[in-house]
Amino acid sequence: MSNFTTRLKAKIEEKKSFVCVGLDPRLNRIPEQIKEEIVAEYGKTKEAVGKIFLEFNQGIIDAVADYAAAVKPQIAFYEQYGHQGIKAYEETIEYAKKKDLLVIGDAKRNDIGSTAKAYADGHLGEVDFWEEAEVGYGADALTVNGYLGSDGIDPFVEACNQQGKGIFVLVRTSNPSAGELQDLEADNKRIYEVMAELVNDWGEDIKDEDGFSAVGAVIGATYPEEAEELREIMGNAYFLVPGYGAQGAGAKEVVPSFKDGGYGAIVNSARGIIFAYQREPWKDRFSADEYQEAAQAAVEYMREDINTALNEAGKLPW
Ligand SMILES: O=C(O)c1cc(=O)[nH]c(=O)n1[C@@H]1O[C@H](COP(=O)(O)O)[C@@H](O)[C@H]1O
């Protein structure tokens, strides 16, 4: 199987899009017409929630597939509903792959090495199945927490190597409190800079033909100055950049995460796209029945917004 970054770049080129759509369903924001039909059949049960999530996600995937390179389901929204939610997570990944999208599983996993291996096998690789091995969730890439150090990361890097997968290590997160720990200094370096250097080390032996490593970094769009500095430190890492849209960042803020020749970053937005029908400026144009059209308008806008900003910065690769 080809490298994850080779596939990601090809997908970005094919769709002319650096957009990743976050599939983070919330029951109280899903259009009533989807819920009513399913509740009529399954009642107000967790089974119904799983089916509602899947149907909503399929609608979103159909609407955005031509305009996005990847989707990123965040597992927290699913696992809170137990196995019925997890089933929806699994089936969402399957459907997105069928629709030719790359899937970044957002689970921010890690643990001691031996346990991390179970996470890596389950999310990216193959799980022990008597004499056989069976593919787990089957995501193309996974978000991981690097806080446990190298032995916790090794199993994920192994999965990248053997299965052509990718990981995105949390380096500079998008949230308001990110700096509480990440800005602390050790040996005259900030913690996020130390993490960036570890990302380089972990990805050293797993690069594609353009030098991009399968070990990428999560860099919040809400911290463009840090992104610029981190782009310098991690010349070979792909950045997963959340924070566009609902968290307040715009296209200008994501530009520093890209390399000069373009590429090197993929930008995520969840609420701004999947719930566009409830948000400015789309909510006056689209009803709840038209949530797919609203998502499509929002993703098309985001794609153009980022491409325009990259073009102005001389970083659009086509
Ligand atoms: O790893 C992530 O994806 C992530 C890291 C980070 O620093 N900030 C961040 O917002 N995320 C995720 O990105 C998504 C952002 O969603 P919206 O704010 O709705 O666009 C959520 O799934 C978050 O869990």
TrEMBL record:
InterPro entries: Aldolase_TIM (IPR013785), OMPdecase_AS (IPR018089), OMPdecase_type-2 (IPR011995), OMPdeCOase_dom (IPR001754), RibuloseP-bd_barrel (IPR011060). Pathway: Pyrimidine metabolism; UMP biosynthesis via de novo pathway; UMP from orotate: step 2/2. PROSITE patterns: OMPDECASE. It catalyses: orotidine 5'-phosphate + H(+) = UMP + CO2. The active site is at K108. It is an enzyme of class 4 (lyase). Residues 18-285 form the Orotidine 5'-phosphate decarboxylase domain. SUPFAM superfamilies: Ribulose-phoshate binding barrel. One of its GO terms (biological process) is 'de novo' UMP biosynthetic process. Pfam families: OMPdecase. Transmembrane segments: none annotated. One of its GO terms (molecular function) is orotidine-5'-phosphate decarboxylase activity. Keywords: Decarboxylase, Lyase, Pyrimidine biosynthesis. Its EC number is 4.1.1.23. Belongs to the OMP decarboxylase family. Type 2 subfamily. This is Orotidine 5'-phosphate decarboxylase. It comes from Acetohalobium arabaticum (strain ATCC 49924 / DSM 5501 / Z-7288).
